[in-house]
Amino acid sequence: LTVLNAGRRYLKVEDLSGKVFVTSGLGGMSGAQAKAAVIAGCVGIIAEVDEAALLKRYKQGWLMEISNNLDHCIARLRDARKNKVALSLGYHGNVVDLWERLVYELDTTGELLVDLGSDQTSCHNPFSGGYYPVQLGFEEAKQLLSTSPGKFRTLVQESLRRQVAAINRLADKGMFFWDYGNAFLLEAQRAGADVEKRGANKTEFRYPSYVQHIMG
């Protein structure tokens, strides 16, 4: 319902075929995102750093394909988008790399390849394993978390700033991003990312909340 209503409200369409939804997280609640994309009829690309979570969703049948290669992900995205085929593709990697690759595609080809975007990493708990920084691999990051939590925190905040910078670039060209109630925008703001709403007070974000703006 969230994905369908985001399409209705922000893209002004009832039919999401050929539309692309990019997000992250295939764990507890976030695992449903892959299934939602296919039910809604769009192309869903969901990033997940934990291979165990990816494989669980794949074995459940909630995720149609898995890839750790961004070139392949972009090729599959383009093909499914062009042919208006419903697809749920799990990218085994960091969502920041995926967002930055979409910015690269925009800059080099002029194509905006994503229509809808969100995030379901566990940003209510970003410094204890809820969000993994793009600068490190999954296992390396887990090790740093246990040996140097302060350094891990610094990398997480830098990663959040990079993620928001990429999202903002794509949103400026017409992608619609929303907050999924996971404290992503709050933690990005705390990290110094550009998420505040222009001309509003500091408690308002430039992107909507799924509760108030989409489901409401």
TrEMBL record:
Gene Ontology biological-process annotations: L-histidine catabolic process
Domain of life: Eukaryota
Domain Urocanase Rossmann-like intervals: 2-214
Pfam families membership: Urocanase
Residue spans crossing the bilayer: none
GO molecular function ontology, one term from the record: urocanate hydratase activity
Identification of the protein by name: HUTU hydratase
Provenance organism: Eudromia elegans
